[in-house]
Structure formats: structure tokens, C-alpha cells
Amino acid sequence: MNPSIFDGDTPGEFELNRLVQQAQAAMEWRASVNALRGRTNKDGVDVEVSASGGVVSVAVSDAACASGGEAVSGQVLDAVLEAQQDLARQLRASAIETFGEDSPQARTVENATGSRFTRAVVLTNDPDDDRDRR
Questions:
Q1: Nearest to 40, CA basis, from 90, 92, 72, 85
Q2: Dihedral angle over CA of 105, 106, 111, 116, nearest 10
Q3: Is 47 helix (H, G, I), strand (E, B) or coil?
Q4: Residue 75, class by beta-carbon neighbours within 10 Å (0-12 exposed, 13-18 middle, 19+ buried)?
Q5: Cα distances (angstroms) measured from residue 114 to each of 24, 29, 111
């Protein structure tokens, strides 16, 4: 650790209070974010994702299965992405509400959620699958 980072003027009480308030707001925001869920119902596929974007639940209607398994796989992947995008919108809105639209924190959340979720693909030949090597 570089001790020179402590060189210079000591922050005043106002600055310290402001920093403490920012830290408290960030901790409260993080706790509230943990409760967020992204959801969608797309083409008979109902998906819910957790605050991390991981799939919590998937329900597929009988009607969604009419086109066959491959089509259902694609529908599930589309619905997962849509639920993750719903989560990303909620995260951005929450950051703006908590920290302000032009805040560095809101920009960080915008940048992170803008590139985080992409549509997965169904692997037809998984190179890591031992069954393909037999």
C-alpha cells in the first residue's frame, strides 16, 4: 500500500459525512438489488431470473411445445434473455433512483448491464461432452 495516498489535506467533517452517506446509500442499494427478479412470459414460456441473472424458474406451456423440442429450446433461451433484460432495466432504474441519473454509480450500472446479458446458444456438439468421443 502506498502511504502517500494519505498525504494532503485531511477531509473536513462535511466531506466525511458526505462520504459516509454515499457508502450507506450504496450498501442499502445493494441489499435492495438482491431482492430484484427479472420476469417474462414469451410465447408460452414463463421465466424468472434472480438478481444475478441466473434462472430461478422456467415453465413451458403445452402450446409452446407444439413446434418440437428444438423450437422450445430456442423459445426458452429467448425468454431467459428477455427476463435478464427486464432485470437490467430494473437495476438501471434503481441505481438512478438511488444515486441520481448523472452519477458515476448509475453510469457504472448502465455500462455493466449493457453488456452483461446475451442470448445463449444451444450446443449441438459439445466438445467437452465425453459421449461424443466414444
A1: 85
A2: 100
A3: strand
A4: buried
A5: 26, 19, 5
User: What is the DSSP track for 89-126?
Assistant: HHHHHHHHHHH-TTSHHHHHHHHHHHHH-------SS-
pLDDT per residue over 54-111, tens digit each? Answer: 999 999 999 999 989 888 989 999 999 999 999 999 999 999 999 999 999 899 999 9
Q: What is the structure's pLDDT at 6?
A: 58
Mutual angle of helices 13-33 and 69-99, in 10-degree steps: 160
Instruction: Please count the other Cβ atoms lying within 10 Å of the Cβ belonging to residue 58.
Output: 14
Angle at 66 between CA 65 and CA 68, to 5 degrees: 70
Torsion sign (Cα): 122, 128, 133, 134 = negative
> Which residues make Cβ contacts (< 8 Å) with residue 56, sequence separation at least 6?
37, 48, 49, 50
Residue owning grid cell 423459445: 75
Which cell goes with 77?
433461451
